[in-house]
Design a protein that fits this description.
The chain has 130 residues and is of the alpha/beta class. The chain has one domain (8-126): 3-Layer(aba) Sandwich (Rossmann fold), CATH 3.40.50.1000. It has helices spanning 32-41, 54-66, 117-126; strands at residues 8-11, 45-48, 73-74, 93-95, 104-105, 114-115. Strands 3-2-1-4 form a 4-stranded parallel beta sheet, covered by helices on one side. It has a two-stranded antiparallel sheet with strand order 5-6. α2 links the parallel β2 and β3 (73-74). The protein is globular and about 45 Å long.
């Protein structure tokens, strides 16, 4: 944790914040907005960590702005350049539908599974993050 007990949390977009509908922006994954807002309210710093680029990345950052979820970084950790030239984004926690161990759920009609934010919230509460 940072000096102020805040964490840096890297969050994927497609399949994590929104349902898989790339290159479009899918529907919000249930619970994502609430948990992300709670994380920000606790002072944690969010990094959008996505493969999107150009106008598709702009659409993803707009999704956060429209939902009033402040991003600390987009595909980069703003403080990382002070101690490494690595392109890998440093974070304390990564929330990604493709991450091993991240709770996922299957929704009827969806092409791929999505993050289960109910279980993510429970884990974050258990860990003292929320």
């Amino acid at each position: 944790m940072g000096k102020d007990n805040s964490l840096i949390i890297a969050v994927d977009f497609d399949g994590t914040c929104v349902e898989h509908d790339y290159p479009e922006v899918g529907m919000d994954v249930e619970g994502a907005v609430d948990v992300l807002r709670e994380l920000r309210a606790k002072g944690h710093r969010l990094i959008l960590f996505t493969m999107r680029s150009g106008s598709k990345l702009d659409a993803a950052t707009r999704w956060f702005k429209e939902r009033k979820i402040e991003l600390w970084g987009v595909n980069r950790n703003p403080e990382q350049k002070d101690w490494t030239d690595s392109v890998k984004v440093f974070a304390d926690i990564y929330i990604d539908d493709s991450a091993l161990g991240c709770p996922i759920m299957f929704v009827d009609g969806a092409r791929r599974p999505m993050v289960n934010w109910t279980k993510v919230r429970a884990q974050l509460e258990y860990d003292g993050v929320l």
